[in-house]
Amino acid sequence: MTIAHLARVFAGSALHHSENRIIVRGWVFRLRSLASTTFIVVRDCTGEIQCVMATARFRQQQLKLDDAVELTGRIRIEPRARSGCEMDIDDLRVLNPASHKLPFNASSRLDAVGPEARIEYRPLACRNHEVGDIFRIQAAVLKCFRAYLEAQHFQEIITSKIVAAGTEGGSNLFAIKYFERTAYLAQSPQFYKEHGVAAFERVFETGHVYRAEPHASSRHLTEYYSLDLEFGFTDGPEDVIELERQLLTYIFEELNRNFGKVLGRYRSTSLPSMLKVPVWDFHECLERLARAHGTSHLEDDLDPEAERQLCALAGAETGVPAVFVLGFPAANRPFYSAPRGESGAAQSFDLLLQGLEITTGGQRLHERATLESALRTRGMDPTAFEDHLRMFELGMPPHGGLAIGLERLTAQILGLPNVREAVLYPRDRYRLSP
Amino acid sequence: MTIAHLARVFAGSALHHSENRIIVRGWVFRLRSLASTTFIVVRDCTGEIQCVMATARFRQQQLKLDDAVELTGRIRIEPRARSGCEMDIDDLRVLNPASHKLPFNASSRLDAVGPEARIEYRPLACRNHEVGDIFRIQAAVLKCFRAYLEAQHFQEIITSKIVAAGTEGGSNLFAIKYFERTAYLAQSPQFYKEHGVAAFERVFETGHVYRAEPHASSRHLTEYYSLDLEFGFTDGPEDVIELERQLLTYIFEELNRNFGKVLGRYRSTSLPSMLKVPVWDFHECLERLARAHGTSHLEDDLDPEAERQLCALAGAETGVPAVFVLGFPAANRPFYSAPRGESGAAQSFDLLLQGLEITTGGQRLHERATLESALRTRGMDPTAFEDHLRMFELGMPPHGGLAIGLERLTAQILGLPNVREAVLYPRDRYRLSP
After folding, report:
1. Domain shared by A84 and A146, yes or no
2. What's the domain count of chain A?
3. Which of A231, A249, A371, B390 has the most CB atoms less than 10 A away?
4. Of A45, A185, A222, which has the smallest distance from its Cβ to B200's Cβ?
5. Residues B71/B23, Cβ–Cβ less than 8 Å
6. What is the dihedral of CA B403, B408, B412, B414, to 10 degrees?
7. How many helices (DSSP H) and strands (DSSP E) are in chain B?
8. Does the beta-carbon distance from A45 to B155 stay under 8 Å?
9. CA gap A50, A63 in Å, rounded
10. A108 found inside a domain
């Protein structure tokens, strides 16, 4: 029977209530029944508490792992317990039992649980620290991204994900039946964040973007979460690169400080400072790859193997397996990329981290006339972009920006082999549920 | 000519550079040319600075409002200037001119600018404080929402907006052509946030949701930004209501503290404490409306007029024009609503603020068996919800939550007549761009 006048106390605060009777609510995380005494570890959103009752009494309760329970009892200081205290149970109530047929429990070792089961039983997998911590780290990355940029005078914006046309000319778009018309899911907030520069000078947005990627790979999703920023009055892509160095260094320092123990389960070293991550020109990268690995098949882009090799080369030189590659051939970058010199390169960069591209960014064209001519050069019709081009008549400053894939960044921070492990509910060509 | 070794200084920091030569970049916000001297107020993302040059020299520059400019000059303490200093201009460079044919300028009074022009020229309207501050306030609301919940042990989650079926049975859904299948845009993260409770106990999500609302009104959008939260181990909807009282009070206090002057332009009083906002039962509301206004046509829901009248009645009683209406007839609430007593009411509430519903929330069903029977009662087939129902076998605790429409909340905070004014790029049946 519940004692109505007692308030629920979080497991993480129980120690402050020693000698008092309190109510704890949570999940049965561990159960250990000895001859005379049974130990029940209950977990809630703040931590765990070990609760104790006579085994004879426990046998009547039919309690099992992952049941949602409410326990009433007295808190006793117990230095041997992890939380410094234990509860002597007076009363135990099952609020909602777990099924008898779960494929695993929240306290199971998940090594033997396949990736499919982890996704099919997402909530249970997340109740386990091994999976749950991925999303705690991810939320912390997101929080630090926002906090750093706010401190740098960036304004958070929210822009529409339903658009009349794609930003980059129409491929890989998901079509929506929008009343009597066809609309599309936004591939990127690129145009809107550039408009945001004309409005607020410095803007960021965190939100979903959509790519109708027909091929499933360990690095592609059809719906991913993009950390976007764009800012005005820049001198070139180096300003954007320097901002990203500072931003990632801040995020990594905060993670090291607040999640050091968790990170230690995923990686052997703490997260590095990114301040010295070098910038290599695209052609310099090709030369380095040719020298080190005899690579000769690359012309206007990198491939996954080259990305891994470049990170290894950078790691050998600087101690940090990361490199900014700047000056990709313009033909392979979007029409709004500013040119870099006269040789057909773009002021466009990627950041490669531990073998994976986690960012694309660059300096953009900021004049209507050059944008129109860039569109025409690619055989695209400027009149189709009139709503966008008009925004360049409002005193659009020179500007640049970048987009970081949150799932990829999370995966690289934690060394996850597949970006799907860093999404609660991944979407790809074949997966629409759960 | 730019002096390359000088760094750009933000307008808001110029005072710290008195007697130094600096570079300022921003937009020409005001221009005042007297016989001998011309004053150019330049604005950037941190503030404004008044810059001075000889009119004879200025005439050669062809400068105009909203041009993006770079000014080099020396900072001089000037107590009469708003920022406490002025710049004596050595050098002026137009980085990108604004068009000669703008319908208004960033410094124009926007009273005469219609709502369509404000949206067609969004960046320029946002460069004006009157519109820009709406989005600065909105970003602050978002930041406070997240900060308050994190302090209360809520975990931020990101869930998919591409779903195989609707959460509430299929009406008002936008269909997506998803490779060989049809998918839908999520109407709400409801199912996922309930799964999040089974994973993390307390979760929140901020993100877009989609409703194919065929009718345009001052309160409906097809795409809006939902502030969602859900938490476990609740005793009833009163726990959710109390959390919202605390949450909104925190947000409002922060806005009063940090945006007092801005709020003063939009409303005559500061934002109120919400701690004493009353809870009125749905039937009590009908009785009050009948007594005060002779209302007799309402049966199972409120209408906009009733919402306005209830807020006025609450305002007269408590001083705050807001009321939680609890116990709506279950027939009008989603299948997952917990029942309130035996009379067909649901543990479901709305928060009405200044005449508008800004929140829907409640206690949910948490047992698979009762969910199945609720579905059957409504003629819905539980097998279609199997992916969802299975999550209730993992030890799902009793839980509740709410969703706040960010645009509506922003509109009510600022007294905006149409929710579209609180969206950068509104979407409705007829509007897909910009």
Report:
1. no
2. 2
3. A231
4. A45
5. yes
6. 120
7. 11, 18
8. yes
9. 15
10. no
* Domain contains A120: no
Does residue B414 sit in the same domain as residue B321? yes
Q: Is pTM beyond 0.95 here?
A: yes
Does one domain contain both A256 and A366? Answer: yes
Q: To the nearest whole number, what is the mean pLDDT of chain B? A: 95
Kindly give the interhelix angle for A304-318 and A282-293, rounded to the nearest 10 degrees.
90
Q: Is the ipTM of this complex over 0.90?
A: yes
Count CB neighbours of A208 within 10 A. 21
Residues A241 and A145 in one domain: yes
Distance CA A65, CA A86 (A): 19
Tell me the CA distances in angstroms from A186 to A46, A163, A166, A219, A224, one per residue in order: 37, 6, 7, 19, 11
Q: Residue B2: what pLDDT? A: 45
B160 with B51, same domain: the answer is no
Residue-number span of the structural domain to which A23 is assigned:
11-96
Checking DSSP bridges between strand B279-281 and strand B322-326, what pairing results, if any? parallel
Residue A39 domain-assigned (yes or no) = yes
How many whole angstroms separate alpha carbon A47 and alpha carbon B157?
19
Residue A60 CB: number of other CB atoms within 10 A? 8
Check if A389 contacts B (Cβ < 8 Å): no
Tell me: pLDDT of A180 over 70: yes
Burial class (CB in 10 A: 0-12, 13-18, 19+), B384: middle
pLDDT at B165: 80
B interface test, pick of A133, A136, A176, A202 with most B CB neighbours within 10 Å: A176
* Residue A250 sits in the same domain as residue A156: yes
Asked whether residue A326 carries a pLDDT value surpassing 60, the answer given is yes
**How far apart are the C-alpha atoms of A327 and A308, rounded to whole Å?**
19
A74 and A141 share a domain? Answer: no
Contacts with B201 from chain A: Cβ below 8 Å: 26, 44-45
Q: Is residue A103 part of a domain?
A: no
CATH code for the domain of A257: 3.30.930.10
Nearest CA in chain A to B163: A432
Q: In terms of DSSP bridges, do strands A339-340 and A322-326 run parallel, antiparallel, or are they unpaired?
A: unpaired
Answer yes or no: do B169 and B285 share one domain: yes
Residue B24's CATH number: 2.40.50.140
Show residues of chain A in contact with B406, CB under 8 Å: 158
